[in-house]
Amino acid sequence: MTITDPEPVRILVVDDEDIVREPLLEAMSWVGYAADGARSVNEALHLLGQHQYHVLFCDLVMPDSDGFSLMEVVRARYPMLPVVVLTGHATVHLTQKAMRLGAQDFIIKPFSIRELPFIIERNLERVRLESQLREQQTEDLLFQTVQALTAAIEAKDPYTAGHSQQVAQLAVCFTQVLDMSDTDVFVLRLAGVTHDVGKIGIPESVLLKPGQLSANEWEIMKQHPVIGAEIVGQIIDLGYVAKVVRSHHERWDGTGYPDGLKGETIPFLSRILYISDAYDALTADRAYRKGMTHDQAMEIIRAQAGTHFDADLVDILEHRVLQALGPDWRTPGYVMPQLSRTTREAMSIQNPLALTE
Ligand SMILES: [Fe+2]
What is the pTM of this model? Predict the structure, then answer.
C-alpha cells in the first residue's frame, strides 16, 4: 500500500479547527493522497462507514465528544486502521491514555506540513509489516499443526516415515514447472504432507498387516482418504486441502476411491498428488526392500497412463518434474532449486493444465 497503488491511500482527518484541518487536507491531496475531513466525532463515524481509510488523523478535543471516544470505536470496529493523534498539549497522561486506546503516532501542533508524507508512509509501512508478520505466524502455526499430524501417523506406520515429505516435494515441483499459483503451491504442499494422515484412524491390525488384505480389510483401508479429509478439514482455512486429500486415490478411469471420480472431475491437485504418491512409493527404499529404479517405476506408471493416471501428468513427471528436481532430491536437507521464469517458460512450451480443476 503506497501512494503509487492504483487505488489511492485514503486518509481521514478529524479536527474541529478549520485552520488545522483544511491545510492538512490540501497538503495531503497535493502529495497524492485522497483525504477527507470531519469536524466532529459523529461526522467522522459517518465517513468511516462510507469509505475504507488507511490512516486516521484525530484531534483530541472536539465539540460533540473527544478524540478518545472516537479511538475507542475505531479500535473495536477498525482495528487495522492506524490512528495518528493531533494534539496541542502532549502530557504523559494524555499520551498514555491515547496509546492504551490504540493510537500509534502523535503530532504536536503546530507542525510542519513537510513531515506529513513521512508520518503517513511510516504508519502504512507498519500496518503492512504487522499484517505480513501475522500471515507468517498463521502459516507457521498451520505447518506446525500439520507436522504434528504427520508425526502422529509416521509414529504409527513406519512405512509413511519420510514418504509424506517426499510426496509433497514431488507435488510442489509439478506446481513449479507448470507455473501454478502461490495458492496451488500452498495447498499442494499441505495436502502432500497430510495425504495419508487418515491412516491414524485405520486399525493397526489392518494398517500393519504383513500379508495381503482381505476384501473386508481393504474396504477399511480405503477409508483413509475420507478420514484424512475429515481431520484436515477441522483445521481452519484448510477446506480445499481436505478436498485434495480426499481424492488422492481417485483414478483417471473412475476405478479409484473413495468417490469413483473420473477424468477431469478429479481435482487437478489430487491427480498430481496421486502420481507423486505412486512414484515415491515405487522408488523409495524401505527397511525391508530396495526401491525400484527410475526406469522400472516409469515403465509401470507409463503403462497406467490414461487408466490410473492423467496421461498429461505422466509426461510431465517423466520429462519435466524429475529433471527439475535433479538426482539428489531425497537427500536429507535437499533444497528444491527455484526455477527462474525463463527456465519455466523454456520447459513449458505449452501449458494445457493451467487450471487447477
Ligand atoms: Fe493414501
Answer: 0.65
